[in-house]
Amino acid sequence: MLKMPLRRACLGALLLAATAAALPLSASAQAVFPSKPVTLIVPFPAGGSTDRHMRIVAQDASKYLGQPVIVENRPGAGGTLGPATMARTAKPDGYTISLYTLAMLRMPYMQKSNWDPINDFSFILGLSGYTFGFTVRSDSPYKTFNEYIEAARKAPGTIDYGSTGIGSSPHLLIEEIAINAKVKLNHVPFKGNADMQQALLGGHVMAQSDATGWDQFVDAGKMRLLVTFGDKRTTRWPDVPTAQELGYKVVSTSPYGLAGPKGMDPAVVKTLHDAFKKALFDPASMDVMKQLNQEPAYRDSQDYKEWAQATYIKEKGLIEYLGLMAKD
């Protein structure tokens, strides 16, 4: 028969083992995360500028995570299909994450959505953003952006510009400027960059607002870049002013970052954050961003969430003003 102290010791050991077994799996899982490949959803077609950047970042992040990061393209619904599907169906274990774009903070206003852009996500980090520019043909009478705006003031609704679609960032940022300047512009939506650029070069529209594609025509002398919309001048076109410098209270880079489903373990979020932050600033990523006329727009997890919350509120006012709110 066991003596009392020994019996108590055995019972204590059994209770300790039972308690450990009852602990949430996350406590042990986070110590070895990741133990298998991580899927990164990119909500755009393969081969585009964002896909190109994310594949480089994913490759470098794999080194720091010790597991492959596999890019999975899921385009659709203006860049919201992939992350929205992830939010509804993926486990919050960190093994499925997604690129998160500004479209996520607009689409719920513009059409009925069964997901919440803030509460259905765990924010990991902000990565980068696009360089938006406003261009005209090189033989355009408008030598400056203010000349273009003044022409619109004198002839309301007759001065046009193209963008890649209603509700897109290039569209909304120009409409925001038009509101600030108290002018009315004629917006011409296109399906994509290529047909818009050809329309501009062919003289079918007076100007275009876009993030990609115009750089080659500017460098070739076929287009004139009137203004950019970041918080500072670009290194590639240092003589071109920002909208802020011209007196317009508009800064737009359409930032993108990474998010996972709601309820992710903070330790897993930190592991992903740290790996992708290192990857963002790796030489390969910096080189691709330079080629795409982009710069890092890093935000930590909390800052990225706060940015999303503030931006979601701001976007509602502009979308309401433009009459783009979803009908009940």
Automatic annotation (TrEMBL):
Domain of life: Bacteria
Gene3D superfamilies: Bordetella uptake gene, domain 1, Periplasmic binding protein-like II
Keyword Signal: yes
Source species of the chain: Achromobacter pestifer
Pfam families: TctC (PF03401)
UniProt similarity note: Belongs to the UPF0065 (bug) family.
Protein name: Tripartite tricarboxylate transporter substrate binding protein
UniProt-listed CDD domains: PBP2_Bug_TTT
Keyword field: Signal
Signal peptide: 1-31
InterPro entries assigned: BUG, Bug_dom1
